Amino acid sequence: MGSFSIWHWLIVLVIILLVFGTKKLRNIGADLGGAVKGFKDGMKTPETSEESKEQIVQSTAAPADKTVDVQAKDINK
C-alpha cells in the first residue's frame, strides 16, 4: 500500500467538494492567496526617499520643549 493512484485522489477531491462546497473552498483559496501576497509585499524592502527618512526621524525624535527627568533607583539595597 504505497502511494495513491490518480483515482484515489479524484475520489478524495470529490468527497472534499461535497463536504465543504465549492464556494467555501473558493473563499479559502482567495484568503490564502491574499495572505501570501501580503506576506510577499511585507518582505519587500521599501525604497524610501530622503523626505521619507527625514519624516521618520522627526516622528521618532523626542520633542525639544519637553524634558523628562528620570531617577535611577538602586535595587540591590
Features:
77 residues; 3 helices
Can you give a write-up of this model?
The protein is mainly α and 77 residues long. Helix content is 62%, strand content 0%. The longest helix is centred in the middle third of the chain and has 22 residues, at 22-43. The radius of gyration is 28 Å and the shape is elongated. 0% of the residues are buried.
What is the secondary structure topology, with strand pairs?
Elements (H helix, E strand, L loop, with lengths): L5 H15 L1 H22 L6 H11 L17
- Please tell me the overall pLDDT: 77
- Span between termini: 71 Å
What proportion of the residues is helical, as a percent range? Answer: 55-70%
Into which percentage range does the β-strand content fall? under 5%
Low-confidence stretches: none
Oligomer: single chain
**How many β-strand runs?**
0
Given the structure, what is the number of helices? Answer: 3
Global structural class: mainly alpha
Largest sheet: none
Rg result = 28 Å
Shape: elongated
Listing every helix as H and every strand as E from the N terminus to the C terminus, the arrangement reads HHH
Compact overview of the structure:
With 77 residues, the chain is mainly α. 62% of the residues lie in helices and 0% in strands.
